[in-house]
Amino acid sequence: MATSQSDSFSNDSEIPDLSGRVAIVTGGASGIGKATCHALAKSNAKHIFILSRNENSGMAAMEDIRSKTPNPQITFISCDLSSFASIQRAANTFNLISPRLDLLFCNAAVCLVPQGLTQDGYEIHFGINHLGHALLIKLLMPTLLKTVPKWPHDVRIMVLSTCRWNWAPEGGIIIDDLQTTQPQLTSKERYGQSKLANILYARELARRYRTIKIIPLHPGIVDTDIMCRLQKKYLRAVYRKLGHELLTPEEGARNSMWAATAPRKEVLSGIYYDPIGVAGKGPKASMDRDLAVELWEWTEKELNKFCG
């Protein structure tokens, strides 16, 4: 089942023309998200939407992309993934502008932040990294499904996870107390369970929506703002001992762009991909169908309290 692509996959030369396709990138104002938006613009995507909570950063990202790419159609929409109300406004705004959606990059995340809750009362890593994106997908699903028969290309959702799913606590996800700060867990464990949830949810989504390709993936170890200073220092030291450097955001975007644009026969829905296009790996817990169904049902119950 495993598939592999060369690490030489290039955002400049191997992405097909994307004329006519509409894309959303969460966290598109910086890091991997911004690099993804730039790659989409260079490939002639019809319309790119940056969803980010920071308008100043979003506007700066658009200005930078426009300075490097001729006449991209790119729009900023304010979206705070820690707020269900903000996510709903963002989805409504998008649907007023565009009747179609071909590519959805669930890219934004928080990592190793202090104990806290989202505006709706969920553990902050889990609320932003998993629940926020799950609500966005739910609200955009009618548009995604409507787009499927209108285009010969696949409609795809890229869900960015990480190799740090191995930080998840024993049992994978402690579902019973996700509406607390989970003080009994370390920040690594809280982050790890949210990233494991990304994979589990993407796989269950793929089982339930067969006409859309849902692709969980790992971008690689990338030097972005999401890393805390201590983690960057540690990882740089480890990688240099091995003769490597942390990936740039542009390099980190390659697996996302591969997943979004590779020929349909090369990309399997619901399969986790390491860089670049290496399928069949991932955590043992992410293959736990019972946990995936439990997470799905809990997620639907929580989201339906807001938008049911």
Automatic annotation (TrEMBL):
Pfam families: adh_short (PF00106)
An example molecular function term from Gene Ontology annotations: oxidoreductase activity
Domain of life where this protein originates: Eukaryota
InterPro entries referenced in this protein's UniProt entry, alphabetically: NAD(P)-bd_dom_sf (IPR036291), SDR_fam (IPR002347)
Keywords: NADP, Oxidoreductase
Family under the similarity heading: Belongs to the short-chain dehydrogenases/reductases (SDR) family.
Protein known as: Oxidoreductase
Protein species of origin: Amorphotheca resinae ATCC 22711
Lineage: Eukaryota, Fungi, Dikarya, Ascomycota, Pezizomycotina
